[in-house]
């Protein structure tokens, strides 16, 4: 048996019972990342904030329009019947969830009440 194989066949220390203070371990990497992120925000934040505000309005209007269509047309299948592709619907649902934290089926903005029956009754026959 070679020396390498013999070395590997010896028992390995079990560190499972040697717990760290947290899931971050001692927090060395987390502190370094937080320091880096703070520096980037301090330097780039003032330049990026105006652009972020300009982009946020059209994105939110698009997402709210998607939410409205989702509910008025009956969800995924209704949007497909309108002509949206599966990929497009999945992309919008993903963006919606990343931005607002909920699936469009679960999200209900305060102050908005949908009358789906009235909407459906007013739709022209195709």
Notes on the protein architecture:
The protein has 126 residues and is an all-alpha fold. The chain has a domain at 50-122. It is built from 5 helices and no strands. The protein has helices spanning 3-8, 28-73, 76-82, 86-100, 116-122. Helix 2 packs across helix 3. The model has no long low-confidence stretch (mean pLDDT 87).
Low-pLDDT windows of residues: none
Radius of gyration: 26 Å
- Helical content stands at 55-70%
Content of β-strand: under 5%
Largest sheet: none
The whole-number mean of residue pLDDT values reads 87
**Number of H- or I-type helical stretches:** 5
Briefly note the structural class of the backbone.
mainly alpha
The H/E string reads HHHHH
Distance between the termini: 80 Å
* Strands, count: 0
Shape: elongated
What does the secondary structure layout of this molecule look like, with pairings?
Blueprint: H1 3-8, H2 28-73, H3 76-82, H4 86-100, H5 116-122
Helix pairs in contact: 2-3
């Amino acid at each position: 048996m070679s020396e390498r194989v013999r070395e590997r066949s010896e028992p390995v220390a079990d560190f499972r019972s040697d717990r760290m203070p947290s899931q971050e371990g001692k927090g060395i990497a987390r502190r370094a990342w937080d320091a880096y992120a703070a520096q980037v925000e301090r330097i780039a934040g003032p330049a990026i904030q105006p652009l972020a505000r300009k982009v946020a309005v059209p994105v939110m209007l698009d997402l709210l329009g998607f939410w409205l269509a989702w509910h008025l047309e009956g969800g995924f299948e209704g949007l497909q019947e309108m002509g949206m592709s599966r990929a497009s619907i999945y992309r919008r649902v993903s963006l919606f969830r990343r931005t607002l934290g909920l699936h469009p089926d679960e999200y209900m903005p305060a102050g908005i009440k949908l009358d789906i029956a009235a909407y459906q009754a007013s739709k022209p026959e195709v």
